[in-house]
Specification:
- Helix 3 (98-112) crosses helix 6, helix 3 (98-112) packs across helix 7 (227-238) and helix 6 packs across helix 7.
- Helices cover 23% and strands 34% of the residues.
- The chain has eleven helices and 30 strands.
- The longest helix is centred in the N-terminal third of the chain and has 16 residues, at 130-145.
- With 483 residues, it is of the alpha/beta class.
- A six-stranded antiparallel β-sheet has the order 20-21-22-29-24-27, with no helix packed on it. A five-stranded mixed β-barrel has the order 6-9-7-8-12. A four-stranded mixed β-sheet has the order 14-16-18-19, covered by helices on one side.
Length: 483
C-alpha cells in the first residue's frame, strides 16, 4: 500500500483531540500546559508531531482541532510555528469526553464535506512508524466508505495491563477492503494473567483510541445510541459563535451532552465496528514508565535528560528541567525535577501517579496548574522571586503583541527593559523605552505594554503592594477576547 492514501476519492479530515490534562506526567504536565503541548521526545510538542503526521499526505485536508478555552492561544501559536493553518480550532466549553467531541467534529465536517471521512486522533500519542500509520489508514478507508466505523488495534508485544483490548472477529472484505476485521468485542484493562492469555491467543490488539469513519455515519450511530447527547451537541454546534480565529460551541447546550467516551457511546454498541491491526511504533505516553520505554537508554537502562549525574543507577528515568539532579544507587526509579517541584516514584507505580495528583488537588497546590513559565496570548512570564509584599517576574512579549489595558487595585509595578523596545501606556501618557531604561506604574493607574519591534521584548517587573495575585487585574480593553 503506498504511503499516501489514494484508495478513495473522498477527502479525509484529520480531527485532533487536544482537551486532555495528562495528570500522570506531572510535574511536567500541568492543567494550564498539559503533556500534548510539551516537547517530550523532540523539539516539537506531541501536538505538533500529531499535526505533522497528517500534513503532507494526499487526501488529507487541513486539521480540525478540538481544545478547551485555556489552551486556545498556545495551540494556535504551536500550529503557526510549524506553518500549519488549521481548518478550525473548535473550543469545548467543558470536558464531556470523546463521544460529544467526535460528534461536534462530525457536524463540522458534514457541513463542509457531507461525504468526508474523519480520522480521529488524540493529540498526545507517539507513532514511530509514520508510513505504517498511513498504510493502516489506507487499509481502513475502503471499509469506512462501506459504512464501517474503524478503530486501529495495536499489535500487542507484551501482556500490558494499562490498555483496553479489542478482540478480532472475521475478516471484512466489502468494498475491496483488505486487512480489516469485524470487532468481536471490546475488553476493559485486564489483570496480568488475563493479559498474558490475550497475548498468547493472537486474537487481541490494544485499543489505540484512533478512529476512522464517515462523519454522517458516526452521527447516525450517535443519535441512535445517545439521542440526548446528539441533541445537546447539535444545539451546541448550531449555536456556536466565532471568536477571533476560534469556534466556540455553546456552553449551556454542550453541558447537557452525556459525558462518555466514543468507545462506550458508539463503538461497543454499533454492529458496524471494525478493526485494522497495525504495528506502527505506537505509545499513548500514559505514564512516566511509557516515556522511559520510548527513549534512548544508557547501558545501565537509564534515561537521563538534563543536568544528571548518576552512580550505580539502573533502569531508571532521571530528568531535570532546572538544575543538577545527582542520583546514587537507584533501581527502577523515576525522578523528574522542574523549577518548582520534584517527583520521585518507583517505575512500577507510574500508573498510580493520579493518586498523588489527587492528594495535591485536595491541598489546592498551585503546582498542579502552571509551570514556572506561564504562557499568555502575548508571550510569557516567569516568577523569579516572591517575598513579603514583593514579587519579581521575567516578562517576554512577542513582536507586535501587547498586553491588555488594565489597572491594579493593590500593587504598583516597576518595569526595566532588558532587551528590545517597549511602548508603555501610563495613564494619559505614552512612553518609549529601550534597553536598560525603566518606568514606574503607580497603584490604580491604567497601563499597557506593547512590543513594536521585530524581536521579543524582555523586561523585569518588580511588583510591590499588599496583594500580588493574578486576579488583581481590571481589564478595560484586550486584543484576545479575555474578560
Amino acid at each position: 500500500m503506498p504511503e499516501d492514501i489514494k484508495t478513495a476519492t473522498t477527502m479525509i479530515h484529520p480531527v485532533i483531540l487536544s482537551g486532555g490534562s495528562g495528570t500522570r506526567l506531572w510535574p511536567m504536565s500541568r492543567s494550564a500546559y498539559p503533556k500534548q503541548l510539551l516537547p517530550l521526545l523532540s523539539e516539537l510538542s506531541l501536538l505538533q508531531e500529531t499535526v505533522k503526521r497528517t500534513s503532507d499526505a494526499a487526501n488529507f485536508s487541513p486539521p480540525l482541532l478540538l481544545a478547551n478555552d485555556a489552551h486556545r492561544f498556545i495551540i494556535a501559536e504551536q500550529l503557526r510555528q510549524i506553518g500549519i493553518q488549521p481548518a478550525a480550532i473548535m473550543l469545548e466549553p467543558e470536558a464531556r469526553n470523546t463521544a460529544p467531541a467526535a460528534a461536534a467534529a462530525s457536524f463540522w465536517v458534514s457541513k463542509q464535506d457531507g461525504d468526508g471521512l474523519i480520522l480521529l486522533l488524540p493529540s498526545d500519542h507517539v507513532i514511530g512508524n509514520v508510513p505504517g500509520f498511513r498504510a493502516a489508514v489506507a487499509q481502513g478507508t475502503k471499509a469506512a466508505l462501506a459504512g464501517k466505523l474503524i478503530t486501529f488495534g495495536i499489535k500487542a508485544d507484551r501482556p500490558e495491563t494499562g490498555y483496553g483490548y479489542i478482540r478480532k472477529g472475521t475478516a471484512f472484505t466489502g468494498n475491496g477492503a483488505e486487512g480489516v476485521f469485524e470487532v468481536a468485542s471490546f475488553v476493559e484493562k485486564p489483570d496480568k494473567a488475563r493479559a498474558e492469555t490475550y497475548l498468547a491467543s493472537g486474537e487481541y490488539t490494544w485499543n489505540s483510541g484512533i478512529f476512522l469513519f464517515s462523519a454522517s455515519r458516526y452521527l447516525k450511530e450517535y443519535e441512535i445510541h445517545d439521542p440526548e447527547g446528539f441533541a445537546a451537541v447539535k444545539a451546541a454546534f448550531d449555536q456556536a459563535a466565532t471568536d477571533l480565529d476560534f469556534v466556540r460551541l455553546d456552553g449551556d447546550a454542550f453541558a447537557k451532552a452525556t459525558n462518555q467516551s466514543i468507545d462506550y457511546a458508539v463503538m461497543e454498541k454499533t454492529k458496524d465496528a471494525a478493526v485494522v491491526p497495525v504495528d506502527m511504533g505506537w505509545s499513548d505516553l500514559g505514564a512516566w514508565d511509557a516515556l522511559w520505554a520510548t527513549q534512548q537508554q544508557t547501558g545501565d537502562g537509564n534515561v537521563e535528560l538534563g543536568d544528571i549525574v548518576s552512580v550505580d543507577c539502573r533502569n531508571s528515568y532521571l530528568r531535570s528541567e532546572d538544575g543538577l539532579v545527582a542520583a546514587l544507587g537507584l533501581d527502577e526509579i523515576i525522578v523528574v525535577a522542574t523549577t518548582d517541584a520534584v517527583m520521585v516514584a518507583p517505575k512500577s507505580r507510574a500508573q498510580d501517579l493520579k493518586k498523588l495528583v489527587d492528594r495535591l488537588k485536595q491541598q489546592k497546590r498551585p503546582e498542579l496548574e502552571h509551570q514556572a513559565v506561564v504562557h499568555r496570548p502575548w508571550g510569557t512570564y516567569e516568577s523569579l522571586h516572591v517575598g513579603h509584599r514583593v514579587q519579581v517576574k521575567h516578562i517576554t512579549v512577542k513582536p507586535g503583541a501587547q498586553l491588555s489595558l488594565q489597572l491594579h487595585h493593590h500593587r504598583a509595578e516597576h518595569w526595566v527593559v532588558v532587551q528590545g523596545t517597549a511602548v508603555v501606556t501610563r495613564g494619559e501618557e505614552e512612553v518609549l523605552l529601550s534597553e536598560n531604561q525603566s518606568t514606574y506604574i503607580p497603584l490604580g493607574v491604567k497601563h499597557r505594554l506593547y512590543n513594536p519591534g521585530r524581536i521579543p521584548l524582555h523586561l523585569v517587573e518588580v511588583q510591590s503592594g499588599s496583594y500580588l495575585g493574578e486576579d488583581d487585574i481590571v481589564r478595560f480593553q484586550d486584543n484576545y477576547g479575555r474578560a
